[in-house]
Fold this protein.
Amino acid sequence: MRQIILDTETTGLSWERGNRVVEIGCVEFIERRPTGRTFHCYLNPDCPFEPGAQEVTGLTLEFLADKPRFAEVVDEFLSFIDGAELVIHNAAFDVGFLDNELRLAGAHHGALSDRCVIEDSLLLARQRYPGQRNSLDALCKRLGVDNAHRQLHGALLDAQLLAEVYIGLTSGQEEIGFGAAGAGAVAAIPTYRGATGPRPRIPIPTVDLQAHQSRLAGLRKKAGQAVWDRLGEQEAQWQAPVLA
């Protein structure tokens, strides 16, 4: 599976009010592994920044004055993302801006959804952490992703951070290869090489067991039974001796 983790920076919060994209950053994954391929560009928006937007990115119109316009990079951009699954945090925002840029560059370009499946990592985060803050910074802190170097918003940097966050959201894997893992860290990862012997048993701390039982008790009180109880009954049936 080919995935592109994507982020944009813009001159403001609404393309309907004439705001434009000023930066695009993409990171390519294949089979959930970074390939090292990226797409990154700054863009001349031909419009001013809204108040506050410039401070978020640190970009200026002077810096962007000699950068290409979106129409000049659209073919390269579409070639990079074509056919991939796009992973975007708060996808509606970025997709709205990019679809607008595609329209302005020529209706024949179509929309992102014509070319790609779109996965919104913000929706995934809200499902996993309901009622909590799920901004990129909040998720980095929660999932142990180092974002100390993120002083300003930058599309490529944010796409790289989002890649690590997305892996954490979908599999719990924390290290995906942007940092250099030491040999000791790799050697410490246990491996299970077959089903010929007894499966390894991992001891569970008493405090975690107590919290688990407390949670089950609350579910039983509220719903009469917890799904965990039914799983326990099934396991008991599987382990029961078969009488001849």
Remarks:
- Residues 44 and 62 are 10 Å apart (CA to CA).
- The chain has two domains: 2-171, 208-239.
